Structure formats: structure tokens, C-alpha cells
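Limitations
The C-alpha cells in this dataset are predictions for the assembled complex, not deposited experimental models. Users should treat interface geometry with appropriate caution, especially where small molecules or nucleic acid strands are included. An illustrative entry is reproduced here so readers can see what is and is not provided.
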Amino acid sequence: MESIKQSNQKLWLGFDLSTQQLKSIAINEELIIVYEAFVHFDNDLPEFRTNGGIYSDAKAHTATAPVLMWIKAIDLILDRLRLNGLIDFGQVIGISGCGQQHGSVYWKHGSERILMNLDPTRFLHEQLNQCFTIKDSPIWIDSSTSVECKELEKSIGSAHRLAQLTGSRAYERFTGNQISKIIKHRYDAYSQTERISLVSSFLASLFIGRYAPIDLSDGSGMNLLDINRKQWSLDCIRAVSLNQENDLMKKLGHEVVPTTQLIGTISDYFVQRYGFDPDCYITAFTGDNSASLAGMCLGSNDIAVSLGTSDTIFFTLSSPKPSIEGHILCNPIDHNLYMGMIVSKNGSRTRRRIRDDCADSNWSKFNELLDSVPRGNFGNIGFYFDFQEISPTIIGDFRFNYYGNEVLNFAPEIEIRACVEGQFLRLKIHTENLGFKTDKSTRILATGGASTNPSIIKVLADVFNATVFTDSMPNSGALGSALLAKYSQEKSIKSFDEMVEKLRATFKIAAKPSLDANDIYSALAVKYRQLEDRLTRPI
Ligand SMILES: O=C(CO)[C@@H](O)[C@H](O)CF
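Predicted assembly:
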């Protein structure tokens, strides 16, 4: 990277406020990553004592994250970018970013005035620490709003009707249901709230120095946005606000903007404190998966698999077929298109737990044991849900042997393969339920931490019977944000595909499916469906 750092080159910055860390990437005119920096919440901000960046209560099914930790991470990451060589922030032409979807931030009355008048000689966290009515924000792992979900679906008519309107049936982690729960149980905090941001628009607000609008793509993850008319659904707003729709609409901000829309220039705080150019523009921030769709430069026959805290599959769709399975979001690159998405809450944290239990917390041993068992795992199937899963909504570990009988435990090598095969079998059958079937021509583009693990990627190729490509860059959210920042200024002269053409070539084959993969995993998928049905419909 040393050879491409020049002090006079134009740069675009992308941020990704994900569950476990804040990431930042700077790209140059040639779309090459020239600087990057990370702040890992648990390790770098230990005073908050988070576990994987969150606080969770398995009994109450709640999951939150301290807003102040996110703000302190911003204070840290810009200095780390400077330490990593980005001396002159005046080179930065534009900024965008993304955040974990569905999380919500509650700004106290009077906070926008504080945002607009920040003192550049002081840290952000010192000045904003009294600006939030809810100190620990609900985040996407929370599943404590089942009552609110049922009420919303009843109010709109049915789960399917809500899916047609907003792209998804009611999901516990979706922001509208989280807001509804806060109105019911923490009305004092809600009534003192001036603005409700998503994690993405919260981050954007820090950079533009006032409340930033929610973008269409991340807004599609709230059960509040009409994805057909591209505006808030008054029926949904009325339902979740318990008929206080005018107040909630005001708190959300009436405007929802296309993801590639410019929303302002950088706040004077960053100009004075870090030396940004006052003309540095800010493009709307979006959800992490939407930004990853851009960062992975998906083609029409590609599907992306993000193997992070959540395991997420997403792909571009021209005509949405909303169903009570999965999600349809407005597309971040072209808001006349859509993106399909399947999410599994139990991703990297579960793989890490199984590694700790079965492979002495050692990935090399994990891979050795995984590779030591033949494909199909002798017919053994496992379900491993540290958190209540999104679909099926169950929690716990469940193991079934070749005969379909539940067993209490597996040998370590069988457990490891059952965990990885089970995670991918679930993604496979739920993606097929959404109408997307992979074939030999399908390219699976893998990103996220586990995409750098060859043994796990080989299982992904076999279960989907498709070739898996990985790029040299597992941080697709931050990269996608930087690309969207640059594209927002060029969209009138070229398409996104034209802009990123050269990046597509950087994807390399990471694993090809075995010849017997289709036979083995088609049969295992049938058995997986039957067992999942049995778990969700107890006798
Ligand atoms: O809930 C999800 C998407 O619906 C997750 O992928 C989060 O965005 C992860 F931050």
C-alpha cells in the first residue's frame, strides 16, 4: 500500500459502524484502498464492557449497544487514520458510511443545536454525552418485540400484506417495532426525544453537524417504509406510534432520501479539528448490507454472502416478490431496483463458540477437524442458536443423527461440521423460499471475517453447489460506502457498473463445489427442512 500513498491524491472515505467494530477505508481515484483504520469496541473501549460490541440478555431476548461507545469510536478512528498515514484530511473529496441495520438512536430535545455548535477543541463524546434519551440503543440482535410485531401485522391486515407494503413481515429487530415497544414502556424517554435516527443516519448526523435523513435502503428495514411509493407508510407509522403519527413522523424526519443523494457538506467541527476541506461533501449513509452490495460490485447473476456477526445473503432484484420469508429492500445504487436479503442472526459468534468448545479456541484445529469429516457429515444435522433466530424463531442447540433422532451431543469433529453445514443449509433453503435458486452459472461472492477461512468457504461452495469468489477485501461495507460516496458525484456521467468494472476483476475463485456436492446437499436440505419444521412446530 506504501507505493500508492501520495499526498496530493483525491480520496473518498467510507465508514462502517458494525456490531463489533467501527471500520474506515479511504480509496483514491483508481478505487484502490490507500488507508484504513479500525476501532474494535470490546478491546479498544473496554470501559463499556461489551461482549461482541453489545449488551445482551438471553432471557429477556434483548440486545443493546451504548451510543457513547460508538461516538468515542469516531473520536478514535480519525486519529488512527492519521497515524496510518492519512495526514492531510484536506484530500478527502467525499464521505459516506453505513451502519448495522435496524438499530435506533434517540436524540434528546435540543441536541441538534449542540450538534451544530460543537467545539473543535474537545472530543465529540464530551459534548454529546447528554444528548440521548435512550443511552443503550436497541440493535438488530434484539428479539423482544414479538407482541409489537403481532399488533403491527394485525393493524395492517396480515403478515403478507405488511410484507407487500414494507418488503418484510413484522420482524422483532425491525425499528418500527422497537419504537413501538419504547413508546409503550419508556414513554418518558420517548416524549423527550427530538429525533430518532437509524445507526446509519446517526453516524451521518455527526459528520454533517445536524440531523441526517434516513435513506431508502436502510429505511426499508424498519417495517415503516412503503417500498413501492418510496415514502413512509402512514398506516404503519400510525400503528407503531399508537395513533401519534404526526409526532413520530416529525421524530423520524419527513424526508427519506435515495442512498446516493448528497445530504450536505462536512461539519465545521471536522474542518477545524482535523483539517477537512469545508467543501467535502457527505452522501446519505445506509445499512451495512446495502453498502456491502455496492462494495462487492454484484453482477446480475451474483449473490453475496456476508459471513459476519450475522450471516447474510443478498442479491439485486428488478421485480420484488415480497413474502413472509426474508426481506426486500430498496436498492442502494438504483432506488428503482430492489435487493433481496436473508439474514441469520447466529453467524460468527456461534462459529466462534463451537470453535472454543470443540477446537481449543483454535481456528487451525477447527479447520483440521472440519476437513476430517466427509461432506454430508454422515447424515448428522445440527441447529445452533445462541440468540433466538430470525427464522425459525428458536433458541438453543439441537442435534439429529442419521436416523433423524435427536441426540444430546456429537463428537467434536461432527459438531463442527454440523454447525457450518447447518448454517449454510438454512441460508440455502430460505434463499430458495424467496425464489432465488443458484445454478452452475451463479457466482457466490463471499465477504466478512469468515470469508478468509478456506475450510468454511469450501463448505459454502458445496452446500450451494456453486463457485465461491472472495475479494481481497473482507470489509465490503466500508468499501461500498466509499464507492457510493464517489458514485454519488459521477452517477450523471456513468453507471455504477462502469465505475467499478475494474474492481470486479479482483474477485478470485476461493472454492469450487465437489462433483458430488449437489447430490449430497440436495438430499440433506430436504432432511434439514423436515427437522426445522419439527423444531418450529413441536408435537
Ligand atoms: O439484521 C441484519 C440485517 O437485516 C444484520 O445483517 C445487521 O445489519 C448486522 F449488523
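Some entries come with short summary sentences. For this one: The CA atoms of residues 350 and 386 lie 6 Å apart.
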